[in-house]
Write a structure and sequence with these properties.
With 194 residues, the protein is α+β, with helices and mostly antiparallel strands. It has helices at 2-8, 36-55, 59-77, 138-145, 159-170, and strands at 20-27, 31-34, 82-88, 91-94, 97-100, 104-112, 115-122, 128-133, 177-181.
Length: 194
Amino acid sequence: MDEEKLAAGGPGSSRTGVKDLFSWKSLNRPMWSYSRDVFTTFAVIALLLSFIVAFIQEFLLIVVVWAAYFLFYALSKVPPVEVEHKITTEGVVSMDKSYLWSELGPFWFTEKGDQTVLHILHSNIFGQLILLVDKKDKEKIRDILVEFLPYIETPQKSTTDKLADWFGKKFPLESMVTRNFKATDTPPAPPSAS
């Protein structure tokens, strides 16, 4: 009888419930506000790429270039929303989507501006689960995750990361970023007309 309860997930079973180990709220993505110069620069780059691609008659690639520009523009203008993330005994839950431990791989933290970002390798098309965390929660999250996943102190950079770093050094657009928003920030007050 007890074996039947355990097999069915009844009381006393290890499958009766998932326990939340830690939860936090953060923005679903970092928010950067760019000056008009950034949009103008990228529009000129997209226009030049379009002319080059038109010469080789790859018109679908022109659509891709302008779609990427529109995505960049839209993501910079639409504010992120606050979402909840949880670490449970079965995996990670982020934005109401569950990621089981068997789907996840090593994890590491990076610092972008004044934000701490948690990266967890995942078997999906993007390859990573990326979550914003509060600096004060970083150690607690690391201590919990290390029980289930391997921790990488400094991840090896992929070819894409190296290429992005090279472009960042050659074309430093970060100086054109006007403000980094946090979930607790309020928009700046408009200047008063005196």
